[in-house]
Design brief:
6-stranded mixed β-sheet, mainly beta, Immunoglobulin-like, single chain, 144 residues
Length: 144
């Protein structure tokens, strides 16, 4: 009798474990998200200083430091092509890091045409491959 009870408990535990293993875990964010300019459109004429705000879809925006799939932070590239995708993005006047997890940054731009690129990167500033990027060309009006 005792042996049967142990067998029933073992079968019940096994069935519960099997059902739990088949349950679907929550999906992690995919790195195939997208970024877009929230405050600019291609061809806009703007004044400097210019506030650039960024929207992210299907991504988790957070401060730099930890590498997790689908997580990272924004970079704004000014008048430069996309960098290599296998190394951290450089940091200078043309490569603006938003490693604090922010979504807006104020740029000082000279009058004339400028190409602005967004590039989403992981917690170590390495871009995703394929790149998660967006681009606009804006014209900065001369000051009055």
């Amino acid at each position: 009798m005792r042996h049967r009870l142990h067998l029933r408990l073992l079968v019940a535990f096994g069935a519960t474990f099997a059902l739990g293993a088949c349950a679907k875990a929550p999906a992690a964010p995919k790195s195939a998200g997208s970024v877009s300019f929230a405050t600019l459109k291609d061809g806009d004429t703007v004044k400097s200083p210019l506030e650039v705000c960024i929207d992210a879809q299907g991504l988790v925006v957070e401060p730099a430091g930890e590498v997790k799939p689908g997580h990272g932070h924004h970079h704004i590239l000014v008048d430069v092509p996309l960098p290599g995708l296998d190394a951290p993005i450089g940091k200078d006047e043309q490569h603006i890091h938003m490693g604090d997890g922010s979504r807006c940054h104020t740029l000082e731009l000279s009058p004339g045409e400028h190409t602005l690129r967004l590039l989403f990167a992981d917690g170590m500033h390495v871009p995703y491959d394929p790149p998660i990027t967006a681009q606009v060309v804006v014209k900065v009006a001369a000051g009055e």
